[in-house]
Amino acid sequence: MNRVQLKRSAILKMALSGSSEPLLQPEEEEEEEQEEGSKEPPFLFRAVRIATVVSLYWFISITMVFLNKYLLGSPSLRLDAPLFVTFYQCLVTVLTCKGLSLLASCCPSGYVDFPSIRLDLKVSRSVLPLSVVFIGMITFNNLCLKYVGVAFYNVGRSLTTVFNVLLSYLLLKQTTSLYALLACGVIIGGFWLGIDQEGAEGTLSWAGIIFGILASLCVSLNAIYTKKVLPAVDGSIWRLTFYNNINACVLFLPLLLLSNECSTLYHFDKLGNVNFWGMMTLSGLFGFAIGYVTGLQIKFTSPLTHNVSGTAKACAQTVLAVCYYEETKSFLWWTSNMMVLGGSFAYTWVKGLEMKKVQMEPPPKANEKNDAGV
């Protein structure tokens, strides 16, 4: 039972960090392959299962972005309260985690697989540094989406990979290969070209760009802090989700007061509208579900395939947004998107090849120097 929990925690840690590096030792991976190889399901069943999981990931991820855009910047809704929207999404996640925990304790063993969750103030304090970064990540993500269009959203927060490389070097002293750096250069070029084209079309929002950069930075920091904090919750990603969001709910309260959003909500004409609260709750449930389906996609494919799927999903999301909002974009605008997506795909592919090479080759001697660049 403990081994199953450890495997799931490893899968979800990869989902949260977006890493294509294995979290299990080669010996453990061989044991898993031997265990699963004897009872491997038929090819058709595996193909249908993978297609279902990938489709579910695409549907939840894309729908969540469009839903959040509606809540954050719809002219028909006219709700200027991004912090409250984010706070409510965190509250829904807390209640969902607690509800699933209670359901798992009441149901027969194996029917609902969810860890037991109870509030421990000591653990909550241990998770607090990550929660501060987590608040920045989800808040800046929503603020970026509020000020930029869905079609440009992927480009606006495209620097996560670049910050991953930069922070890995500054904080962890990990170097990056030349090919991976070239891929990052393509991403940066696409980012700047996208800004230039948004400006040329008169739709550029510098506030959205700044929030997108800050969101990318927080996503990278979130991955680093997550690895440090996971031992405090016994390696359970669901317990970490619970504590992260309950800390966020508490920390958001003074921010709501300082931002004057309470006054905005008081004068909001749809505050008693059932449909509005239904959309708000649905966005919170989708935010909870994206972590689950991300873990499923990694489990039934691989971290590399997950990253490739995420890149393809971003491309589909951009095309859908342009069609849905009936926008007309220039050739160079599309070029900027293709550069960001192509650079992200190239980086994922290079890191995947490097990972396989490390697995196949014996570890280097202590006196050997790493030939990789910064």
Protein model, in words:
By secondary structure, this protein is an all-alpha fold. It has one domain (2-29, 42-360). Helix content is 76%, strand content 0%. It has 14 helices and no strands. Helix 1 packs across helix 12, helix 3 (43-73) packs across helix 5 and helix 6 (150-156) packs antiparallel against helix 13.
Blueprint (SSEs and pairs):
Elements: H1 2-17, H2 26-37, H3 43-73, H4 82-106, H5 121-147, H6 150-156, H7 160-172, H8 178-200, H9 206-229, H10 237-258, H11 261-266, H12 274-300, H13 303-324, H14 331-360
Structural class: mainly alpha
Report the span from N to C terminus.
42 Å
Q: Roughly how many Å is the radius of gyration?
A: 21 Å
User: How would you spell out the order of helices and strands?
Assistant: HHHHHHHHHHHHHH
Query: What's the domain count?
Result: 1
Poorly predicted runs = 1-33
Count of separate DSSP helical elements = 14
Main sheet characteristics: none
Taking all residues together, what is the mean pLDDT? Answer: 83
Helix content: over 70%
| Percent of sequence in beta strands | under 5%
What characteristic shape results from the CA principal axes? globular
Oligomer: single chain
Number of distinct beta strands: 0
Give a short overview:
The chain has helices at 2-17, 26-37, 43-73, 82-106, 121-147, 150-156, 160-172, 178-200, 206-229, 237-258, 261-266, 274-300, 303-324, 331-360. The protein has one domain.
Give a quick set of tags describing it.
single chain; 374 residues; mainly alpha; 76% helix; globular; membrane
